[in-house]
Amino acid sequence: MDSKEATRTCGQCHKEVAEANFALHETHCSRFLCLCPECDEAVPRDQLAEHKEEQHTLVRCTKCSKKMERCQLADHEADECEERLQSCVFCDLELPWKELDQHCLVCGSRTELCRDCGRYVKLRDQPEHQMTCSAADGDSSPPLANSGAPSTSKGTLHSPRNLSQPPEYFFSRCFILAFPFSTTEVEIVSCRRCMGSFPAEELEEHQVFSSIFHTLWAQFFR
Ligand SMILES: [Zn+2]
Ligand SMILES: [Zn+2]
Ligand SMILES: [Zn+2]
Ligand SMILES: [Zn+2]
Ligand SMILES: [Zn+2]
Ligand SMILES: [Zn+2]
Predict the structure, then answer these.
(1) Near ion ligand 4, which residues have CB within 5 Å?
(2) Distance from residue 212's CA to the centre of ligand 5 (Å)
(3) pLDDT tens for each residue of 18-60
(4) What is the CATH number of domain 7-56?
(5) ipTM for this model
(6) H or E segment to which residue 154 belongs
(7) What is the distance in A from the centroid of ligand 5 to the CA of 177?
(8) Which chain positions lie within coiled-coil regions (predicted)?
(9) Which of 77, 81, 106 has the alpha carbon at shortest distance from 91?
(10) Distance 122 CA to ligand 4 centre (A)
(11) How far is the CA of 123 from the centre of ligand 5 (A)?
(12) Nearest of 181, 140, 146 to residue 162 by alpha carbon
């Protein structure tokens, strides 16, 4: 016996219907269902108005004010809206998506001291630095004397989120190069506009980004 049941496609609702039930289905379908003119979905005739209201009413995204059908709103808010909040991978701050690129450019340029090799490494370069750090394996004594700090695992030291500022500096830590450890080997200079402290070699780069830094600085601290 043929185990696969013969089917036919219903012209009304486009469903595959068993041949044996087809006549009954078609009668039922044409009596009770209709196709929504907006989305071609088969909808119970008496619920078409409700369906249109639920799915196809034009609504505005509350974040970006873009107009769309209600059925598109959830996808828009989750994946498309330029104003949707996304977290910065470097500091966890939530920002509108359209501002994230610029923020991450600045935020990822902050440096943290690599205690393995004593160099200041940009947060965005840390994954690569972990692979290539000259002191990462073999040599267990870092060039800097960090006698006070207990030794922690490399993963923790290299984590971009392992910033040691107190919580009230949550915002400022985004915009100021992190400088959590003191060292006598690096000359520290201050930016006059944002009062951030930087290794002298980082100041030039800070000034490249200074318009972004200082605009954000002005927004948050005035
Ligand atoms: Zn049908
Ligand atoms: Zn529809
Ligand atoms: Zn939107
Ligand atoms: Zn950030
Ligand atoms: Zn290193
Ligand atoms: Zn500055």
Answers:
(1) 88, 90-91, 93, 107, 174
(2) 28
(3) 999 999 999 999 889 999 999 989 899 999 999 999 999 999 9
(4) 3.30.40
(5) 0.62
(6) helix 154-158
(7) 17
(8) none
(9) 106
(10) 13
(11) 12
(12) 181
